[in-house]
Amino acid sequence: MKTYKLALVGATGVVGINARKVLEEKKLPISEYVFFSSKKSAGKEIEFMGKKYIVRELKEDSFDEGFDFAIFSAGGDTSKKFSPIAASKGCIVVDNSSAFRMDEDVPLVVPEVNPEEIEKNHGIIANPNCSTIQAVVALKPLDDKYKIKRVVYSTYQAVSGAGLYGIEDLKNGVECYESEKNYELKKFPHPIFNNCLPHIDVPLENGYTKEEIKMINETRKILKKPDLPVTATTVRVPVFNSHSESINIEFEKEFELDELINTLKNAPGIIVQDDLKNNIYPLATKATGCDEVFVGRIRRDESIKSGVNIWVVADNIRKGAATNAIQIVEKMIK
């Protein structure tokens, strides 16, 4: 069996740490791993698959030694600079940033949804936004069967999506709540503990945020529906990990609810948890550490002719970033 060489860029960040966990679990036929980071984190020793590795500083000549694949989780500026360099050396890059997602020449891939796009790469494949990934896993089988006419997103996104500083802001808020101590905010403009912050990423001139526009545009690209009416409101909530989403969907075709639920149950990567009477529905605490997308609260929208409401939860760091990227590499190997 052929073996491969893989680079993990951003190996010491939140996504990088989880990518290492997923790679250990999947045991892909990779014979050599190299871990890269910024100059600040370079030199750190990490343990991976029972071995010690020294994290290297990412430089322009880092890919001269030859790699088959590279997973980038180090931010848009790093990706813009180094991904083309890696690709020019024959390495296929799976990029977790937003740098290339809307580039017409770069596939935007969720393996359960549009794996055929992987083969169209020119050296770079984009990983979608974490909130988009879990949404389209649920939307795709429904679109195939009933033809989606409109989508309304309302997201409840965990602080891990804002990185280590976002997690620290929530931890500090929890720790200082009872003692009423003041603490310095490292990420958010307001305390996230005991609050919901109704914006994620920078505001745009049209009143939306960059995160909301990401979801809108990425959904259209992945589902190959450039004119699909989509709207979104993204909210940061005091949850450590796993994003939750309320999705309202209007279809062109009519549906039977039991049939729709079975369609979701039979779709790849989805676990349906839908028994409201017994308090069974997707929870962030249960989704954390999992690679599946959990769907529940499935009910007809009685305000329109053919619509449904669903509740979608997934681990935003695993399926929403690390796992999705590694699943893309896994598809290419197969």
Highlighted features:
6-stranded mixed β-sheet, 14 strands, 334 residues, 2 domains, Rossmann fold, alpha/beta, Dihydrodipicolinate Reductase, domain 2, globular, 6-stranded parallel β-sheet
Give an overview of the whole structure.
The chain is of the alpha/beta class and 334 residues long. It folds into two domains: 4-128 and 321-333, NAD(P)-binding Rossmann-like Domain (Rossmann fold), CATH 3.40.50.720; 132-316, 2-Layer Sandwich (Dihydrodipicolinate Reductase, domain 2), CATH 3.30.360. It contains eight helices and 14 strands. The protein has helices spanning 14-26, 76-88, 130-146, 163-177, 210-222, 257-265, 284-287, 318-333, and strands at 4-9, 30-37, 45-48, 51-54, 56-57, 69-72, 92-95, 124-126, 148-157, 230-236, 243-251, 270-272, 293-300, 307-314. A six-stranded parallel sheet has the order 5-2-1-6-7-8, sandwiched between helices. Strands 10-9-11-14-13-12 form a six-stranded mixed sheet. Helix 3 runs parallel beside helix 5. It is globular, with a radius of gyration of 20 Å.
